[in-house]
């Protein structure tokens, strides 16, 4: 889960633990079905907290499920950042981010199910992978690595392509996921103006381990 400053006393620690239990339960429900119609009682029971505790943390189910998606987005973004912190080339960052995201279907299945069910509405979120990808696109354009496109429009194409490939990965478990992700990364880089040979090579560079 995303890292935050630890609570300063026992009461705050217990309160934070209760809130995180509710968020975790909501994430599990989103991952399993994408359905937000579960009752507050069902969510509280899954979280192993009292029914009344729910309203100490959230005003509504919608607020809880939004928090669950944000929690997943941040975990997603942090996981990618941790593995690419030594990478500077915007083209490498875009390609590796796509390819690692597809690998996370196997290494982080619950997280990727949440994104599968709810990711489309968060392509331009200010949390998770989206702001990091936008940053890399803007740097690539500024450095002349990418053609002068609107980074926000490029993010739409990048996010939609990734979500489509994640959906394909879940729908076809036997898919050569690494091969498909490399092909997609190459196509995205070429769309951004990276020369074909360079795009082909970058899309097949060794990736860091996700474990």
From TrEMBL:
Protein name: TetR family transcriptional regulator
Pfam family, one: TetR_C_40
InterPro entries, per database record: Homeodomain-like_sf (IPR009057), HTH-type_TetR-like_transc_reg (IPR050109), HTH_TetR (IPR001647), Tet_transcr_reg_TetR-rel_C_sf (IPR036271), TetR_C_40 (IPR049513)
Boundaries of every HTH tetR-type domain copy: 16-76
Record key words, sorted: DNA-binding
DNA-binding region: 39-58
Organism: Streptomyces phaeoluteigriseus
